[in-house]
Design brief:
six-stranded antiparallel sheet, 20% strand, 32% helix, endopeptidase fold (from Nostoc punctiforme), two-stranded parallel sheet
Length: 186
């Protein structure tokens, strides 16, 4: 009985955390944001680019920041300690707290290392509110978003995604529009 109660409490706590992340992400939909992934020097920790600028990763970063999780600091600290574990796409020789957390492949690695990596499937029921999903767009560019709690009109078993794909934070039914390469809970 004690084990069941512990699992029930743990499950309830997890659902609340996922729900809080979804609410934080939905709040991002109220902001006007120009798509801008250019390199900017920002404070550390808790640094951010101008609030009216951002990319897909900034939706995730700002949503987690609302929950008290500073992905800038978390990713940077992990990259300092485990630089070899992270992608070498950009030719960097050391971590850079101004940009590392804004790069989707770095977030993918961080979530693999510290979150729960979930199966990538074609079953919409496997993608629950608060999950983090990453894709490779048709031009092979990385993309990331948060599964919302709002079901698709065409398939009520599939949730819409909160992301920024060029027109600021949006809520779209696009889970399977591109190749999914990552599925995480953090």
């Amino acid at each position: 009985m004690k084990t069941f109660l512990f699992i029930a409490l743990l499950s309830s706590s997890f659902v609340r955390a996922q729900s809080t992340l979804v609410e934080a992400a939905k709040e991002r939909l109220k902001h006007f944001v120009i798509y801008d992934g250019s390199y900017k020097k920002i404070p550390y920790p808790n640094g951010d680019v101008d609030k009216n600028r951002g990319v897909c990763s900034d939706v995730v970063i700002r949503s987690y920041r609302t929950l008290g999780k500073d992905l800038q600091q978390l990713v940077h600290e992990d990259m300092k300690a485990h630089f070899d574990a992270y992608p070498k796409i950009w030719g960097l020789k050391k971590p850079d707290s101004n940009i590392d957390h804004r790069r989707v492949p770095n977030l993918e690695m961080f979530f693999k290392r510290y979150g729960k990596t979930l199966k990538i499937t074609k079953n919409p029921k496997d993608y629950q509110p608060g999950d983090i999903v990453s894709w490779r767009l048709d031009n092979n560019l990385p993309h990331i978003g948060i599964v919302s709690d709002e079901p698709s009109k065409s398939n009520p078993n599939r949730y819409k995604i909160i992301h920024n794909i060029g027109l600021g934070p949006q809520l779209n039914d696009m889970l399977f529009d591109f190749k999914i390469v990552g599925h995480y809970r953090y």
